[in-house]
Amino acid sequence: MKSLTCQSCGLPFSKKFRGTNKDLSKNSDYCLNCFKDGTFTNHQLTIQDMEKKLLEMARHHDGLTLEEAQQTIKILPDLKRWKMTHIL
Hints:
The strands form three sheets. The chain has a two-stranded antiparallel ribbon. The chain is built from three helices and six strands. The termini are far apart. 19% of the residues are buried. The radius of gyration is 13 Å and the shape is globular. By secondary structure, the chain is of the alpha+beta class. The protein has helices at residues 47-60, 66-75, 80-87, and strands spanning 4-5, 12-13, 18-20, 26-31, 35-36, 39-40.
């Protein structure tokens, strides 16, 4: 199964965990943790908050290493959600 990369958190996810649009269709840009019913699950989240969240996940979850979190943090500014905030 092909893995997608969430354009908000930068983590890989499968088609099964795609976010949902307002019409409840699946969204392949964002994972279900970041995007639901056509909106981001945390509107106040900043790119700095996302960096902290990734590092926290690496500390407390076996599914993400510190090195993986650091690599993901490097790509955050290039992801669709954060690229939009840098343009404004």
